[in-house]
Amino acid sequence: MLRFDFFSPEEEIVTTLFQGLDLRFFVKRDDMIHPYISGNKWRKLKYPLQDAYQKGKTTLVTFGGAWSNHLLATACAGAKFGFQTHAFVRGEEVHNTVLTLCRTFGMQLHFVDREAYKNKELLYAQHFGEDPASYFIDEGGYSRAAAEGVSELIEELQDNYTHLFCACGTGATLAGLSLGLGSGLDTAPTAEAPALHGVPVLKGGDFIRDEVAALGITTDHITLHTDYHFGGYAKTKPELIDFIKTFTQETGILIEPTYTGKLFYAVYDLAKQGYFAPKSKILLVHTGGLTGFLGMQDKF
Ligand SMILES: *Cc1c(COP(=O)(O)O)cnc(C)c1O
């Protein structure tokens, strides 16, 4: 068995940004789980890696963009748990800090043009189809097994909350939280369970519903806030950067522009608009995400 023990406390957030509101904000510090196997990626990799290990697989093969947290997490997890790692990276060959970290953890990178990248199963079959020791992990770690890993977050909660918020890329994390709340296909969450909210970081974020449903998990109890993408994936605005700077300076908790910055900003903006009933206790899942910061250093 591979050991996936970790520490992720819940902390109350105290910042002037949230002052004067009769609300309380908490953060689930999944960013503290591991410096490189960032937050939700640790949870998402847990069952796929155990499955790979039990099946005697020795090589993990995955996919991502050049600034992907998932690539870095897979590279580091491979090194930690004794797998070789390969990644198909979308687009022309580039050099950046994230890819250098991936290589340093032993990952072999294969750059593929955007057209070829679209068909991941085909890429896998062409390059690894003949290798019985290789193991496919989808882009962003998206899978039912990933959602099952994330669902365990719910059992860890130390307090009761009215709302639970996370950022969404592929939707696997949101799906996992929904599963953990007991809204798997046949059971609805109990009345005192927190309301589940997702903040898509891509434009047109309603697609997240389909991604959750595709994992066999109901979306009935999910609210999506699709207006906080700031122009799209890896796009930002000065307003978001200013918010991140203030938040980080006042709390000592680093958030970044790609995922967690948009999540925290969304909750801040909703709170200012009076979206939450007085006395609400809102928990935000800090899903980690160093690479979103590295990729946008020039904005700070
Ligand atoms: C990958 C990532 C996400 C997106 O998670 P999904 O399960 O793909 O929706 C959110 N936050 C951070 C920091 C991430 O690295």
From TrEMBL:
Keywords: Pyridoxal phosphate. Pfam families: PALP. Its cofactor is pyridoxal 5'-phosphate. Signal peptide: none annotated. The modification N6-(pyridoxal phosphate)lysine is found at K41. Coiled coil: none annotated. The active site is at S68 (nucleophile). GO terms for molecular function: D-cysteine desulfhydrase activity. Residues 17-288 form the Tryptophan synthase beta chain-like PALP domain. Belongs to the ACC deaminase/D-cysteine desulfhydrase family. This is 1-aminocyclopropane-1-carboxylate deaminase. It comes from Sphingobacterium psychroaquaticum.
